[in-house]
Amino acid sequence: MRSEFTWPGTSTLTATVEQLLDPPTGNEASNPKYGTNATMRDNIQRANLELTQQGIDMDKCLYVIDPHTSAKFWKRPTTHSPCLTKSRGSARFWLSTRRRAFNTTEICRLRGFDPTRLIRSAVKARVSPQQLGAFVGNSVHTRIMGKLINSIAKAAGLLHGGDLNLSTHAS
User: How far is CA 29 from the centre of its chain?
Assistant: First the structure.
């Protein structure tokens, strides 16, 4: 029996950005603090100035910074991952305490993908890290997609009672 489609309710993702990152290497201090080009340097310095004025040391507290944006579209640094898009999947957000951008493994985790399986498949298919980043950046988190599929299946009368077992990698 079909029913009216309803959008899934809100979903709380329990992992913090810090929990989804690879462990620190211990070499972070040797990474360039302000990136590798003029735009990155300007934006990361701007973020550092804003945080310092608030009494925050960006080397001690993790902040996510968009180092590639123009001054017109500047956004304040945040403790959460901003929305990944195709362009921000390949040109990554900067992690203040790590002095580097998100890596491919980390953006896979942000979207709920199993990075080992996804990267292995990408290597076999000869997909570059930039292409994989664009793919992941352009995707929807697996938990959100699972909730949407469940709602569609219920509305189509394909699911009676509980939910489909659509387990995901990340929380």
Answer: 23
Q: CB–CB of 96/79 below 8 Å? A: no
Q: Are 150 and 159 in contact (CB under 8 A)?
A: yes
Helices (DSSP H) in the chain: which residue ranges?
Answer: 17-20, 38-53, 86-90, 104-110, 115-124, 129-137, 142-155
CA-nearest of 65, 99, 74, 86 to 132 is 86
Local structure of 116: helix, strand or coil: helix
What string of pLDDT tens digits covers the 171 residues of the chain?
Answer: 577 877 777 766 677 889 989 998 888 888 888 878 888 899 999 999 999 999 999 999 999 998 888 888 888 888 888 777 767 666 688 999 999 988 888 988 888 888 888 889 888 999 888 888 888 888 877 777 888 888 888 888 887 766 666 654 444
The 8-class DSSP code of residue 7 comes to -
* CA atoms within 13 A of residue 54's CA, in its CB half-sphere: 12
Could you tell me the pTM of the whole model?
Answer: 0.77
Interatomic CA distance for residues 64 and 87, integer angstroms: 16
